[in-house]
Write a structure and sequence with these properties.
Helices cover 46% and strands 23% of the residues. The protein is α+β, with helices and mostly antiparallel strands and 107 residues long. It has a three-stranded antiparallel beta sheet with strand order 1-3-2, sandwiched between helices. The termini are close together.
Length: 107
């Protein structure tokens, strides 16, 4: 990404990150899904080591929670499997096992 951006280019990254509370249930969930989550500190180091400057970084889990709840409560065309998965993610987000985070970076 870094080489592809203009000199004053902006890079926006949104990803799941390890939350502040870990438990065995979430660890097993990650292993079943082959998720390799990292914590915010390591994410910031990787971004910095890639040459970017982070100009803004924020936990946006509440936005994701609201989005998922809206889908669960208002969309009848979603399969039961997807609803079950969303509820599971909401449970882990509410327990702070992981978070949805964004980074706005400049070259």
């Amino acid at each position: 990404c870094y080489k592809e951006l203009e000199a004053d280019g902006t890079f926006i990254l949104i990803d799941y990150c390890v939350g502040c509370k870990k438990d065995a249930e979430f660890t097993n969930y990650c292993m079943r899904r082959s998720w390799n989550l990292i914590d915010i500190t390591l994410y910031k180091k990787i971004i910095h080591d890639s040459g970017f400057t982070i100009i803004e970084s924020k936990n946006i889990s509440n936005n994701y929670i609201n989005f998922c709840n809206n889908i669960i409560n208002n969309d009848n065309d979603i399969s039961d499997n997807v609803i079950t998965n969303l509820k599971q993610k909401l449970n882990f987000l509410n327990k702070e096992n992981f978070e949805w985070h964004y980074f706005i970076c400049k070259k």
